[in-house]
Amino acid sequence: METKTLRPQTFIGTVVKTAMKDTATVKVDRYVKNAKYKKYFVRSKKYLAHDPGNTVKVGDTVTIVATRPISKLKRFAIDPTKTVSADEDRGDTLKQGVTSDKDRGDTSKRGVTSDKDRGDTSKRGVTSAI
């Protein structure tokens, strides 16, 4: 008789809380279809996952793997090899030192102009005296 190796259950989710010791709360989203109306929507569930050493931060994308029961509610552990930090998700713009327009405080580069700059008086309800 052949022996099959079973792959443990895995989910990909986002860390939403790390306030507990050696534990992280991971939110896993799944895309489901309503049977009657055929509309797709997102269902979410939070899992407590074992995180030895508190290595992950809030916002990190992690893979959780089913393990033996660690506590009353902890049945998953975070896979450290498949963890993507929140800083890496944002891309290279933060690494290059590019700041947002809000930080610059310069509105002329964004194409935002005031009524004074346009010289348009019709929007303000001002009529010229003849």
What's the order of the H and E elements? EEEEEHHH
What's the CATH architecture? Answer: Beta Barrel
**Shape label:** extended
Task: State the CATH superfamily name.
Answer: Nucleic acid-binding proteins
CATH topology: OB fold (Dihydrolipoamide Acetyltransferase, E2P)
Spans with pLDDT under 50 lasting ≥5 residues? none
Structure description:
This protein has 130 residues and is mainly beta. It has a single domain, classed as Nucleic acid-binding proteins (OB fold (Dihydrolipoamide Acetyltransferase, E2P), Beta Barrel), CATH 2.40.50. The chain contains three helices and five strands. The protein has helices spanning 86-89, 101-104, 115-118; strands spanning 10-17, 23-33, 40-50, 61-66, 74-84. The protein has a five-stranded mixed β-barrel with strand order 1-2-3-5-4. The longest helix is centred in the C-terminal third of the chain and has 4 residues, at 86-89. The radius of gyration is 26 Å and the shape is extended.
